Amino acid sequence: MRSCWVMKMAGKVYLVGAGPGDAGLLTLRGKELLKKADVVLYDRLVNPEILKFAREDAELIDVGKSPGEIPVPQDEINKLLFEKARENRLVVRLKGGDPFVFGRGSEEALYLAERKIPVEIVPGITSAVAVPAYAGIPVTCRGFCSSFHVFAGSEDVADKFDWKCISKLEGTLVFLMGVKNIDYIAKNLIENGKNPLTPSAMTMWGTTGMQKTVVSNLAKIAEKAQNAGIENPAVLVVGETVSLREYLNWFEKKPLFGKRILATGSGDDFPLLKELGAQVISCPTIKIVFDFEESQKALDKMMDSDLVIFSSPNAVKSIVSAMRKAGFDVRNLARVTLAAVGKRTAEILKENLLFPEILPEKYTSGDFLKAIPPSKRGGRALVITSDIGGKELVKGLEDLGYEAVKVAAYRNLPNAGEKWRILKEAEMGFDAAVFTSPSTFMYLEQLIEDLSFLKGKTMIVSIGPTTAKAIEKRGLKVDLMPEENTLEGIEKALLELWMGRGKYADFEKT
To answer: Which NCBIfam families match (predicted)?
Structure first.
């Protein structure tokens, strides 16, 4: 008989570079590990969008440091990493940029190595290269320079530099996190021989929708940065390649750069808006909890129904999960008419080899009821929806002669975890706030009692009339509602509005 053995996984820590800010710059290896991690310790500058790659049940610990503040001392971070790994857990230490570039990652790795905790390093894209690139500034270029040099710009480090040596370097000089020290840096470079007319630039919040760059010569860059309100995180670049920004400034010239969109639904991606430079701040106000027990009970009801209606993508996901768990044979639904409310709902059904026969052109309950052919009307109807949805649909079906039953395949709960981020992002304002269901608005109101940030220049966008009615009932005005009540319809309407073409081109909230 072959002997069996089980290897118990020991704890391990992965120091993962999260990149400079843009969530798209996270490495594939970093994303893979986040999906597996039991524990994630993350820094202040890590984009919250990256944290969404983590498992839903992962333990997320904020150990971020702001300049002048130390919420969690470094020795406590070291101990946390050690303790979590010692519990035989997979730990990701998520650090801004690259873990070995001024991030104290080497200190953390040595601390763990000395205590026999396995450590793996996953490099990240450092802001020293990425931020200048997003500002249109190459750190090297044939004919300009063949080297670049990276320095910490903070006060406790810069006063130890050999400025005479640094000033003689012919390559591009890059200083990280040196906003408070910029005057000191420029002064020491000039006093030790660097030409005061050397092109210089400072970029804050590089690679994100909040990126801002100022350009001057070395003698005036400090004054210009201060007058422009440049704050950390920021990168200072000193060198002749700064002059190339005039030709290579690609990111800040995107047509929708600077537009900020609050997306309150779980699937609001808007890829075209992002590609054109808009910043989509995804803060789902609803937390979806699948009710697998109810979904499994629904399988028997589906076989006895004449019409089965899936009201949303989440309704499909919950039922398909129950099917897989129960080993349900889709041939049991051979005589059942399947229907979908919404294009995305239909797409997910088809991905799972379930093909809806009824899909209305417009995705409201009223339009769906009109789309049911007279030959299909009557009999038993099953509406698969959420705990708070389906009332209008059930009543409409009963009016058409159906014996209609609702199945709550999932529950909608307020997503309390997004409250802090919504409040923080609201301080910087939004150009548009998108609501894709009455629930997305209702739960925003529950999370954030004061909705004054939706007034003023913020354009309120509703996916359809039912959602608009819920918003206007609370005294707010819906500014934009697409003809096609889908995410694609919203994206098209915003593109037409902001790009100056199409039906919505003449509309702008004042």
So the answer is: cobA_cysG_Cterm, PRK06136.1
